[in-house]
Amino acid sequence: MPRPSRSAPLVHPERDQIDLLDVLHALSDSTRMTIVQTLAANPEQACGTFPVQVAPSTLTHHFRVLREAGVIRQREEGNRRWSSLRTDDLNDRYPGLLDRILQASTAP
Amino acid sequence: MPRPSRSAPLVHPERDQIDLLDVLHALSDSTRMTIVQTLAANPEQACGTFPVQVAPSTLTHHFRVLREAGVIRQREEGNRRWSSLRTDDLNDRYPGLLDRILQASTAP
DNA sequence: CTCCTTATTCGACGTTCGTAGTACATCGAA
DNA sequence: TTCGATGTACTACGAACGTCGAATAAGGAG
User: Fold this and answer.
1) What confidence category does residue A92 fall into, taking pLDDT thresholds of 50, 70 and 90?
2) pLDDT in tens, A11-32
3) Keywords of this protein's UniProt record, alphabetized (chains A, B) (predicted)?
């Protein structure tokens, strides 16, 4: 099936359904960590504007992993898909976790 | 090869060599998370005394993943292998990370 | 010494993962 | 309308993962 656009809405877990192990797994990949770091600096960003060197289909896969883990939220606008960190939801469910991980990701 | 005991020492990464993505990956498995939670409550514990329902060889595998990620330290004493959290090393390299993850792991 | 406990290595199995190529649908501009 | 840009779905493949059983080795108790 091609891109469903308006027919099939994007799947996002509820705040209370976010699973810690899924979050940790989602963040344990270098490409996805780069995506999250980029989103931490830019509140909202289109898919194709991330500094990663992977094929577009691979990028789609990583965005889905992050989205289904509850780390990011995606919304469609025209032809683009905008991604943003679910900072509030994550801070509410796992206080301070995201900040610590992002801080740790900058260690040498 | 059977257990090398004294010949091949256990492999532990140096404090500065601990990689965040390896840590997150190590903690993204439920069995290993249970191990870490148990070690957080008990300072040192023998391998066979953890509340997990897996085969001994599987347990050995999980301990190796945690050890090579730098999450735990293992030392041999007689016939037993004692495991402990590398709390100081982790706190020094990634301040607060372990505490946040452990705190998050208790969320309903 | 013999036996049991502890924990390992090895090999095997299914599953999941990261990656890419191809085809395709949508949008916007020329 | 045509065309390019954007991003996805599907498919496939090799690698890594979680799991286990069997064989093995070392230590401790009898």
Assistant:
1) very high
2) 899 999 999 999 999 999 999 9
3) DNA-binding, Transcription, Transcription regulation
Predicted pLDDT of residue A108: 86
**Residue B69 forms part of a structural domain:** yes
Q: What are residue A74's DSSP bridge partners?
A: A83
State the nearest Cα–Cα gap between A94 and chain B, in angstroms: 5
What is the C-alpha separation between B74 and B66, in angstroms, rounded? 10
pLDDT digit string, tens, across residues B42-51: 989 999 899 9
**CATH at residue A93:** 1.10.10.10
Beta strands in chain A, from DSSP E residues, in sequence order: 45-46, 72-77, 80-85
In a domain, A22, yes or no: yes
- List, in sequence order, every residue forming a beta bridge with B76; answer none if it has no partner: B81
- Please list every residue in chain B whose beta carbon sits closer than 8 Å to the beta carbon of residue A105: 20
The residue in chain A having the minimum alpha-carbon distance to the alpha carbon of residue B20 is A105
Decide if B24 and A27 are in contact by the 8 Å CB cutoff: yes
